[in-house]
Structures are given as structure tokens and as C-alpha cells.
Amino acid sequence: MYADDTDIGDASSVTGATVDSNRDPGWLALFSNGNAAVSVMLTGGVAIHALSLRVVATVLPSVVPEIGGLRYFAWATTVAVVSAIWGAAFAAPLARSRGLRGAYRISLVLFIAGSITCAAAPDMGVFLAGRLFQGLGGGLLVALAYTTIQRVFPDGLRTRAMVLVPGIWGVAALCGPLLGGALAEWGFWRWAFWIDVPVAAVVAILAECSLPRSAEMDATGVVAQARATIGRLAHPGCRRRRVPSAADRGLSRRECLGRSLPCAGADDGRLDRNHLPAVCGRGDRRLFADYRRIS
Fold first, then answer.
1. How far apart are CA 247 and CA 274, in angstroms?
2. What is the pTM of this model?
3. Is 2 inside a domain boundary?
4. Would you give the end-to-end CA distance of the chain in angstroms?
5. Cα separation values, 153 from 84, 147, 166, 209, 221, Å
6. Which of 78, 116, 128, 261 has the fewest CB atoms within 10 Å, counting from its CB?
7. Residues 152, 273 within the same domain
8. Are 197 and 263 found together in one domain?
């Protein structure tokens, strides 16, 4: 167990799970010398999401006759997959801003809330809302597994630890339909979601006991990442260019207005850049050509 004030970046150096760099560690090193709790925790987080996708896809034909919503049948899987992608995209900034423990808390709370909502859903609308939360939490858990491997495991074990994650997906692809088919046959489709709750609780306990608490948290990490991402998506290839001021071109305020140009700063020797749009790509080069002609 790590001390509460241990920095994530130094986790691999303070843990007892040290690996000799001169030799290749075996697979058993992932489950010995203090690594067992972390390995079980991250594989358990991936497993509950992977099994949920496979099991729910199998029991869905039994869900519709009870709660209705046949026209939204395909949305049960689509909502979970799309929300999982969004959850995975925000895993890294969430880990930076809240630390690994905080990120796991948030992801597991979302997943448990979604599982309970689906298990108790009286209609398809509530069921889809639960799948949304399940997907967000599951996507975070999968992405946080890789973040945990990078920050917690020593260099000699990271490659082997990363192999565990796709291995869990393979086991889920084999066992998920079998478990889902059994639950659907017995008429216990709601247990496909109830069973996620205790497993997620065990993962939460392991995360609290085995993960370090970050000494420094970037409280604005999520907001800054979101702004940067949205900006790049909205204006790909954009960059701001400096436009010569009106005073540099020898224009008075009246001449600026006559040419339909922003004239802020015409009297004090500078043109306020906030009044000019950011220029994107090659298509707007004509705009700057027009600004050059005014001289």
C-alpha cells in the first residue's frame, strides 16, 4: 500500500515491487512483491466493462418483452459504446486533475449507478440512461488501466501488464455470451446488471488500497483539455496572424470606417486584434491581401 502523500510519478520507485533491470521479469512478477492488488484492480475494472458489453448484448432479447421499447432495441448497445468512447477520451485529464484514486472513484460511481439504473429500469428510457452511465464509467476504467500501468508499474513489467488488458477482452468474448445466455434462459436478465455492483465495489476497495494519491493535482486539467480539443475540432489548422495597425498604414478613423475596417486603436497606433477573426487555412489569404492593398 502506498502512503497517502506519495506522488504518482514516484510510485514505481517507492513500492516494494522493484524489478532488476538486468534481467527479464517473469509473468509471476505481476502478482508478487506488492503488484498483485494493482494487477487485479486494473484487470477487474476492464473485465466488468468488457463482460457488460457481451452479457447485455445476449440478454437484450429478454429485456424488450418485459420493459418494451422494441424500436430502441439497437440503442442499448450504441449508447453504451459511444459513451465509452467519450469516457476514454477524458480519462487522462481526469487522472491529472483528480489523481488515479479520484479518477477510479468517479468511474466506478458512474458504472455502479448505471448498473443499478439498468437493473431497476421500468421502461426503455430509464434503461438507456443507465447504459449511458455504464458506458461512461466503463470507458474510463479501460483507459485508466493503461494510465495506471504507465504510472505505477516499473519499466520491466509495463509490457507484460499491457498484455493483460487485451487478454481480458478475449476472456470476456468467450464467457460473456455464455453467462448472458444462461441468465436469459433462467429469466434473470436483471442479474446481468446486479452482478456488476459487488465486482465494482471490490475494484473500488483495491483502488483505494493499492493506488497512490497524487501530491499535486492540476485542477484545471479537464477544462483546459476540453477547450483545446473543442478548439482544434472547431477550427482545424487555425492560427492567428498579426495585422498591420491602421496607424501603421497612415489611416485615420474616418478612413477605416469608410473601408469597413475595424478602427479600434487607429488613433493610438495599434489595431485591436480582438476585433479581427482568427485566420484559418489558405482560403482566407485574400482577406490579408485586401488589408495590404489599403496602404
1. 17
2. 0.65
3. no
4. 70
5. 25, 10, 17, 15, 23
6. 78
7. no
8. no
